[in-house]
Recover the amino acids of this structure.
C-alpha cells in the first residue's frame, strides 16, 4: 500500500545531479567515510535544521539519492519505506507486507537492514523476510519473501544484514547457525534468482549467527563480495556467486556465543575484522593469491562488538562500544596494526550501537541515549570534543551528504546542516 503526502509524481521526472549520494548503509565507498564533507564539531547550541516524525520503529540507517532521503520503518503492522525531501517533508510511504516485530525492542526492530539503491530502483529488506524493489515514486516493482523461499529465520536476534548491489545484481546475505546460510543474487528488474550460493560452516551455538553486511570491491581484477560471519571471511565472485577464497582462524577454540555484529571495514586492500565479541581485531590482506590470504596482524583487547570501524587512507578508526573501555577511540595503521593515536570520549554508562562516521576531519558518533558527539581529528588524536543531546534514543548509524548530517532516532529523523547547504 502506498500513501502520498504531496507531489510525489515529481520524483518520476529527471532529477538534478548533486555532489554526493549515500546509496547504502556505509556510503558510496562502503567504509563510513566522506572526504568532501567537513561539518566541523557541533555543540549543544547547534541548531537542528529539521526533524521529521517517522511512522514507526526502525533501527536502519537512511540512504540518500539526489537529495531524496529513504528509510525503512514499521508502519502499523506492515513493513514500510518512507521517502523524505531535503527540507524534511514526507514525499510518500509504501508498505510491502506484514512485519515481524523486533525481539529486542530497545535496540532492535523489524526494520534493521538499511535500503540500497542504484539511482533508479530502491531495494528494501526486513526481519519478516520481505524483500521489495520500488521506484522513486514509491511504486512496488516486485517483492518476495525470503523466509517462504529459504526457510524460517533462525537468528537469535533481529536481522541486521543489509543487501548490496554487486555484479549488476541485488545480493542478500543469510547467515545463521541453525538452518541454511547463503548468498542470494536477484535480478534487479524482475526479482528472479540469478544465483544462490550456500555459505554453511559448522560452528558452536550462536557463533554462526551474523548481523554483518557484505562489501563489494575489485580484488585481483575480479569484482568480489567480501562477507564476514560464522568465523570465516569469504570472497565470492559477484557475477556467479562462486567461492573464490576463505580465511578462518578467528575462533580457534570454537567458542560459543561468538555471533558477529560489527562488519568489516576495508581500505587499501586490507580488511579490518572485529571478532571475539569485540575483544579482538585482525588485519587481513585481500590482495594476495586466492588461497592462503595472510593475516597481517591481530590485536587482543582492542575491537568493537556492535559498531563497525571506519576505514580510510590506510587507517582504521575503532570505537569501543561497551564495557569499561566504552568511548575509547583508537586509530590503527592497517598495514601494521600499530596504534597511531588513542583518545577517549566523555564517560557515560550508555553504550554505542551506531557505527562511527568520519566527515572530512570530524569524527561523528551517536550514543544510545541520543547524545551526538563530534570531535576534530588530528595526527595525535581527538580534540574539541563536543556533545549535543537529541533527546531520544539512537541505534542507527549517522550519515552525511552535501554538508547535511542525518541521524535516525527512536521517533524522528534529524537533520543538522551547514548554513549554505
Amino acid at each position: 500500500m502506498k500513501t502520498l503526502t504531496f507531489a510525489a509524481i515529481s520524483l518520476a521526472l529527471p532529477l538534478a545531479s548533486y555532489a554526493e549520494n549515500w546509496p547504502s548503509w556505509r556510503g558510496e565507498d562502503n567504509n563510513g567515510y566522506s572526504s568532501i564533507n567537513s561539518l566541523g564539531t557541533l555543540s549543544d547550541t547547534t541548531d537542528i535544521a529539521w526533524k521529521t516524525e517517522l511512522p514507526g520503529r526502525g533501527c536502519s540507517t537512511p540512504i540518500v539519492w539526489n537529495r531524496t532521503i529513504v528509510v525503512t520503518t514499521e508502519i502499523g503492522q506492515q513493513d514500510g519505506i518512507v521517502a523524505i525531501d531535503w527540507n524534511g517533508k514526507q514525499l510518500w510511504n509504501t508498505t510491502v507486507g506484514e512485519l515481524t516485530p523486533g525481539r529486542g525492542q530497545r535496540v532492535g526492530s523489524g526494520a534493521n537492514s538499511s535500503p540500497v539503491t542504484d539511482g533508479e530502483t530502491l531495494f528494501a529488506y526486513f526481519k519478516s523476510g520481505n524483500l521489495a524493489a520500488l521506484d522513486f515514486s514509491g511504486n512496488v516493482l516486485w517483492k518476495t519473501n525470503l523466509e517462504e523461499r529459504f526457510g524460517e529465520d533462525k537468528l537469535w536476534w533481529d536481522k541486521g544484514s543489509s543487501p548490496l548491489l554487486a555484479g549488476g545484481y541485488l545480493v542478500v546475505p543469510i547467515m545463521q547457525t541453525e538452518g541454511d546460510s547463503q548468498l542470494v543474487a536477484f535480478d534487479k528488474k524482475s526479482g528472479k534468482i540469478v544465483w544462490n550460493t550456500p555459505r554453511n560452516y559448522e560452528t558452536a551455538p550462536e557463533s554462526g549467527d551474523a548481523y554483518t553486511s557484505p562489501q563489494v570491491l575489485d580484488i585481483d581484477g575480479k569484482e568480489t563480495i567480501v562477507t564476514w560471519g560464522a568465523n570465516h571471511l569469504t570472497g565470492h565472485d559477484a557475477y556467479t556467486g562462486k567461492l573464490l577464497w576463505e580465511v578462518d582462524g578467528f575462533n580457534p577454540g570454537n567458542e560459543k556465543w561468538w555471533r558477529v555484529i560489527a562488519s568489516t571495514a576495508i581500505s587499501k586492500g586490507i580488511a579490518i575484522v572485529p571478532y571475539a565479541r569485540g575483544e579482538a581485531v585482525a588485519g587481513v590482506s585481500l590482495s594476495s593469491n586466492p588461497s592462503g590470504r595472510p593475516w597481517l596482524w591481530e590485536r587482543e583487547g582492542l575491537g568493537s562488538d556492535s559498531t563497525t570501524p571506519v576505514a580510510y587512507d590506510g587507517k582504521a578508526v575503532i570505537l569501543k562500544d561497551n564495557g569499561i573501555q566504552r568511548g575509547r577511540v583508537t586509530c590503527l595503521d592497517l598495514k601494521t596494526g600499530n596504534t597511531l593515536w588513542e583518545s577517549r570520549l566523555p564517560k557515560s554508562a550508555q553504550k554505542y550501537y551506531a557505527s562511527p562516521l568520519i566527515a572530512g576531519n570530524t569524527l561523528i558518533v551517536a550514543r544510545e541515549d541520543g547524545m551526538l558527539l563530534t570531535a576534530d581529528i588530528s595526527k595525535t588524536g581527538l580534540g574539541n570534543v563536543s556533545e549535543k543531546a537529541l533527546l531520544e534514543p539512537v541505534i542507527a548509524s549517522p550519515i552525511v551528504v552535501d554538508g547535511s548530517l542525518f541521524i535516525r532516532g527512536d521517533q524522528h529523523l534529524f537533520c543538522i546542516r551547514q548554513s549554505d547547504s
Notes: Residues 2-9+17-417 form a domain with the Methanol Dehydrogenase; Chain A fold (CATH 2.140.10.10).
